[in-house]
Amino acid sequence: MAARGARTGTLHHKEDTPAEPAGKRLRTVATGRQPLAAVSAAPPPLAEEPVVFTGRDDVETLLNEKMKGKNKMDYKGKSEQMMEYIKKLRACIKWLLEREDANLAQIGKLSADLEAAETQYSEKVTQLQNALQESKETDEELQKRYASLQEALKKVEAEKMDALRSLGDEKEAKLAVESSRNEILEDLTKAQLEEKRLNHQIETLQVTNKSLQDYNVDLQTYIRTLQTDAEKHADTISKLQTEKTIILERLGNVTVQAESLKVQLDLAKSLQIEAAKQKDDLLKEIDSHRSELQRVRGDRDNKSAQVDYLLNELRRYEEMTRKSVVELDNAMAKSTSLDETCSSQREMIKALEIKLAAATEKSKWSDLTTMEVMTKHEDQKKMLADLQSRLEEAEQKILDGETQRKKLHNTILELKGNIRVFCRVRPVLSNESGAVTFPKSGENIGRGIELIHNGQEYSFTFDKVFDHSASQEDVFIEISQLVQSALDGYKVCIFAYGQTGSGKTHTMMGNPEVEEQKGVIPRSLEHIFQAMQVLNSQGWKYKMQVSMLEIHNETIHDLLSTNRVATQDGGSSKYNIKHDANGNTHVSELTVVNVTSVGEVSSLLRRAAQSRSVGRTQMNEKSSRSHCVFTLRIFGVHSGMDQQVQGVLNLIDLAGSERLNKSGATGDRLKETQSINKSLSALNDVISAIATKEEHVPFRNSKLTYLLQPCLGGDSKTLMFVNLSPESSSTLESLCSLRFAASVNSCDIGRARRQIHA
């Protein structure tokens, strides 16, 4: 009871007892150890055997047992039955007391184990903090030594880089010298080949020149011979011309004599014929001399042209000979300069080789120093890595201790059977003033919340409190073990409660398209499918079924139905809620879809989001106007172990509570607001009845509470998110939400039962 009281919240002032709703019947159940012990102390009859109770079924059978008699006046029979019934009641009370003592002993043992674990955890934390402090000091010292070594290493590396740079420059210079040397050698080889070619050409020219000189001598001899022949022919021609002149003179004389000697014609005919013959002979001889003269003239012209050509050739060869001699002189001079350059280059190469040997020796010493520094650096790195690994081991031990503490805490909560409550506060907007604070010291860090309303401070404590800086991933990490329970065969229910605009839909759904903004529903599905892949490798085979509905104006709508219009036009009356003997809930005619991957479920979530009823109010531009229930049924089979499990995961986003004067709702929105507030009020009544252990719990007062009956009054693992708006204008609604959450946290619904079949 002390543990329960810690969760109901402690007020810093005395609160007024709220008025009970009109027409509500209150019934006080007297509970206490002393009367039950007195009843159990009455001695039973000696003649009868004691009644033994073995379980809850025997108790329910006893409670359902009715008095029977032969007739109304059979008081003796009824008295005997009453005595027998009292005897059974005593045995039942004794069995209940023994069971309660056993539970209290187990709770005490677990509390002692938890205190021992917390003590051990605090000691380990202290030791680890001391070790961490020592490791930090060692790390700082190592960092300083590492910094000094880094500076020394930088200096050595700088010297090494200078040496490498100078070595590189020397290597480049050596390569340049070798390249120039190779080029010079190539030029020298080419010059030598050119010199050989020129020498050969000079020899050829000399031979040609000699032959040309011989030919020139022969030509000059032939020219002189031709000139002599020409002179001879000229004398002959002059003689012939003289003879011709004489002949012409004679012909003239003959003509004159002929004219004078016509008389002597007959006598002279023979002389004339003879003269004619001589004339013909002379003419023939003259023609032959003329042709011979022309031939001699042609030969003379040919010989003159040939002499001119030969003279030109001789002059050209003489010019070429002079050029060859000049080129030969230039080549010899170039060869001499190349020899001088090669000798100077050889001397330079020798000097560079001496410098290179010195630089190589210096580089060897630098490499040895660098290797020593690198060895020391590697040792320091190994030591640092060892310290880092020890630090990681210490952090892992801390995480393991925290995980063990959470498991023990969850075990105690499961043994108590309480509904777990997480509180989440959305961030303060720029135009809002905050009225919520969180403890910064003490045992309530991460579990406590403080609200200021009308100048007074109210403190509450829950299983976990998330401030405005908590991410979606931080929230899911805290509930991941609860989600995992669905795969293990448990019924799990997580629902979000709070006023409009407090962040319920963001917590449950978020934005599935953005990784950082995914809410509880998409992250739970990803976690289940990832865990299912691991369990598949261990022999488990799973089948998943998804359904999704909303309760709008006390009417159920199928969000996965393909015929949405028909559903809105009155088809919702076919959806009836039924609970079977095993505590499972079924809604008739509701669409159930088999899924095999996260992608398929995400597609169904998008379809359902488009069908859900939303509207705009003064408190929220996009307010959820219905209660949304997402159900994932998990069927697992392990053929090797011949075992079957059946789990259910219910994720519920409740519509936000709101005051009519603040929401400004009218018309359909007014009707929706009234319906939402009525269903949430019915939920409050159910929680109050469970908290006060009333005999009758009004689950049927609304479809929401009737749908949640297995989660609130059965063997389910249940967690509630209470979402708060931190603004000062919403403190009254926040205070009501916190009080309701404290009532929920105090509800004892019994231990969760795993649904497993052999």
Automatic annotation (TrEMBL):
Coiled-coil positions: 114-243, 279-411
SUPFAM superfamilies, alphabetized: P-loop containing nucleoside triphosphate hydrolases
A biological process from GO: microtubule-based movement
Protein name: Kinesin-like protein
Keyword set, alphabetical order: ATP-binding, Coiled coil, Microtubule, Motor protein, Nucleotide-binding
Organism: Eragrostis curvula
PROSITE patterns the record matches: KINESIN_MOTOR_1, KINESIN_MOTOR_2
Binding residues for ATP: 498-505
PANTHER family with a match to the protein in the record: KINESIN-LIKE PROTEIN KLP-3, PROTEIN CLARET SEGREGATIONAL
